[in-house]
Amino acid sequence: MSEDWAAVAAEVAGALGEVGGAGIIRRYTKSGPSYDPTLTPTDYPCTVFQDMVELTKMTGTLIEVNDRRVYVAASGLMITPTTADKWVLDGREYAIKSVRPLQPDPNGAVIMHEIVFTV
User: Tens digit of pLDDT for each residue in 14-49?
Assistant: First the structure.
């Protein structure tokens, strides 16, 4: 019997909500002429657990001391995060350095995203 990954994703969202909290991913869309576009932000609320990146993970990588890692529940998230998006923390925007979908079964749903951003 195959796993119901959508149900697992919903359980992960619930668990992250219990130990974490709410977060915001901000995406900008361009409109108008390409030489002077208008950027319009749209905020996407998400369920998140924030973690410090371990110092042991920094050697030989592009991870820096001020980087933070968050686990974002995929269930209920209206977008798939990318490095073009921004992470919003305490009203300030931060650049997203990496996004990694966590998908235990290649044929199943993504259950959460690991996002690394710099503070």
Answer: 887 788 788 999 999 999 998 999 999 999 999 998
Question: Side-chain half-sphere of 81: how many Cα atoms within 13 Å?
Answer: 38
- pLDDT tens readout for residues 68-119: 889 999 988 999 999 999 999 889 999 999 999 998 888 888 999 999 998 8
Range of the domain at 91: 5-118
Q: What is the CATH number of the domain that holds 29?
A: 2.40.10.270
The pair of three-digit structure tokens given for residue 9, joined into one six-digit string: 């994703």
Overall domain count for the chain? 1
Instruction: Identify whether the C-beta of residue 48 lies closer than 8 Å to the C-beta of residue 20.
Output: yes
CB-based contact 92:83 (threshold 8 Å)? no
Three-state secondary structure call for residue 94:
strand
